[in-house]
Write a structure and sequence with these properties.
Number of strands: 40
Oligomer: single chain
Shape: flat
CATH superfamily of the largest domain: Hexapeptide repeat proteins
Largest sheet: 12 strands, mixed
CATH topology of the largest domain: UDP N-Acetylglucosamine Acyltransferase, domain 1
Strand content: 25-35%
Strand order of the largest sheet: 8-11-14-17-20-25-28-31-34-37-39-40
Distance between the termini: 101 Å
Number of helices: 4
Number of domains: 3
Helix content: 10-25%
Structural class: alpha/beta
CATH class of the largest domain: Mainly Beta
Length: 349
């Protein structure tokens, strides 16, 4: 049994256009959607699919309302509508059992909340504390004295070093390593000496950490990931870094030690940030940027080295013309050479 389109419109807070009695049974991508499914378009790149989709309804922004050929829900944020609809039809998409698997290893002094799940071969060292409905997947390791808040999920093979604090409703994906030693060494002229990394990592509430991401513990003090921050797969975060609340960081980004990143910052993929920098609130950093200087609040930068985005666009446009300009320079060189020959011939006369 499906759900009427007008009910979905109320659920997402959008404006219904067309027949509200249509029944929706599933959610699908715009290219693959079929009868009784709902889809969305949030990016103009997919505008062309609105005229060919077989979806019974689509969710679109106001500027694409006229392109929809059938019933639609109009919203300034179709992507947020999608989130609400997917949760309505499918929940969170995953469920876990409760209880402690017979092969899990639980140390002394461990405190477990209600309805906790410890998967096969999970290892919980001494004095750890896990809140209610925490999920620790197969093969996870929690070091001594770690604390995990209610409703947090650690997918299989997550490693959490000793003394780490993870808040409520956090999600950490497989292969992530939280709290490994920071990259700190002192050189005496002959060899490097390891500086003991005696700080810790704190992940605040509602953080999500992608697969195979590494977050180093602080040398002294705290490496902190702020509330609601979302970090993609394969991200390296150095010791004593601070990531502000609701900041998003895309994959293969590396952040060197002691850099401070503000709130609601957006960082594209494969960005490199030097150490001891400050990135202001709401700044945006384009993919593959190399950031060697601090970025002021609200600034948009891109390129290598990173510079204001509009300036980088002009530079890229000029670089694209280099083959043409080199051809012109060569032609001008030949003309100058020919003129010089003529002048020499006249001087001889």
């Amino acid at each position: 049994m499906g759900t009427r389109l007008d009910e979905i419109a109320r659920l997402v807070g959008g404006r219904l256009v067309g027949d509200g009695e249509i029944e929706i049974r599933s959610v699908a991508p715009i290219e693959e959607a079929g009868e009784a499914s709902i889809s969305f378009v949030a990016n103009r790149r997919y505008r062309r699919f609105l005229s060919t989709t077989k979806a019974s309804a689509v969710m679109v922004p106001p500027e694409l309302e006229q392109d929809a050929v059938g019933p639609c829900i109009v919203s300034p944020n179709p992507y947020l509508c999608l989130q609400k609809v997917v949760r309505f039809f499918y929940g969170d998409g995953v469920s876990f059992p409760k209880g402690v698997h017979e092969t899990a290893v639980v140390g002394t002094g461990v405190r477990l909340g209600t309805d906790v799940y410890l998967g096969p071969y999970a290892v919980i060292e001494d004095d750890c504390e896990l809140g209610d409905e925490v999920v620790v997947g197969a093969g996870c390791f929690l070091g001594k004295g770690s604390r995990i808040g209610d409703h947090t999920i650690l997918y299989p093979h997550v490693t959490v070093y000793h003394g780490t604090e993870i808040g409520r409703a956090v999600i950490v994906h497989s292969g992530a390593v939280i709290g490994s030693d920071g990259f700190g060494f002192a050189f005496d002229g002959k060899k490097y000496h390891k500086i003991p990394q005696v700080g810790k990592v704190i992940l605040e509430d509602e953080v999500e950490i992608g697969a195979n991401t590494a977050i180093d513990r602080a040398a002294l003090g705290v490496t902190r990931i702020g509330r609601g921050a979302k970090i993609d797969n394969l991200v390296q975060i150095g010791h004593n870094v601070t990531v502000g609340a609701h900041t998003v960081i895309a994959g293969q980004t590396g952040i060197s030690g002691s850099t401070k990143i503000g709130k609601r910052v957006q960082i594209g993929g494969q960005v490199g940030l030097a150490g001891h920098l400050v990135v202001g609130d709401r700044a945006r950093i384009g993919a593959q940027a190399g950031v060697s200087k601090s970025v002021p609040e609200g600034t948009v930068v891109s390129g290598y080295p990173a510079r204001p985005h509009r300036e980088e666009i002009r530079i890229e446009a000029a670089q694209a013309r280099l083959p043409e300009l080199l051809k012109i320079v060569k032609e001008q060189g030949k003309r100058i050479e020919a003129l010089e020959k003529k002048l020499k011939q006249r001087n001889k006369k």
